[in-house]
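Input (structure):
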């Protein structure tokens, strides 16, 4: 009996450590509502872009895969739009905010990060590369985004999302 109790008391902390390590980790760097509030003076109008069959086909051409859902919410005030989009890095979605005015990206921010690796994409040394980014008529970005060693999948996901955000902005403003 004494042996069983000792073994149990030794294994319980190990089990708890392993369980905590396996649980999904979610780092919230900025709440999506706060991103929207910080992006506009006053209250922007919340709108919905319905994803028709034709729109989904164009999204797939730009994004490289289907974007899930029937609609995408966005916020608009004059020529400025804000988008909160998600894309899988390796296995978990990365929630990202995009602010676009004219045809250029003003800001890209990682809002919620759930992956175990690649969190460096949230830092300004990386996100500042997206400022001024534009989409060419050939649906390509006008400048190259430098990667981060060990965060390749997250970098690729955010680069694809930036193309999608610029495309969606064009869809609703032209």
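Output (sequence):
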């Amino acid at each position: 009996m004494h042996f069983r109790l000792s073994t149990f008391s030794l294994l319980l902390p190990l089990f708890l450590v392993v369980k905590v390590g396996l649980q999904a980790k979610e780092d919230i760097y900025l709440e999506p509502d706060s991103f929207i509030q910080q992006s506009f003076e006053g209250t922007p109008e919340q709108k919905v872009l319905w994803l028709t069959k034709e729109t989904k086909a164009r999204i797939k051409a730009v994004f490289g895969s289907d974007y899930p859902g029937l609609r995408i919410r966005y916020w608009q005030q004059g020529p400025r739009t804000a988008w909160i989009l998600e894309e899988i890095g390796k296995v978990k979605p990365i929630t990202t905010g995009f602010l676009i005015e004219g045809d250029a990206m003003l800001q890209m921010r990682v809002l919620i990060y759930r992956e175990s690796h690649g969190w460096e994409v949230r830092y300004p040394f990386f996100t500042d590369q997206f400022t001024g980014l534009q989409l060419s008529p050939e649906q390509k970005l006008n400048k190259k985004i430098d990667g981060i060693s060990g965060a390749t999948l997250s970098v690729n996901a955010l680069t694809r999302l930036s193309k999608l955000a610029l495309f969606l902005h064009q869809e609703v403003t032209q």
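Notes: The chain is about 40% helix and 25% strand. Strands lie at 27-28, 45-50, 71-77, 80-88, 93-101, 104-113.
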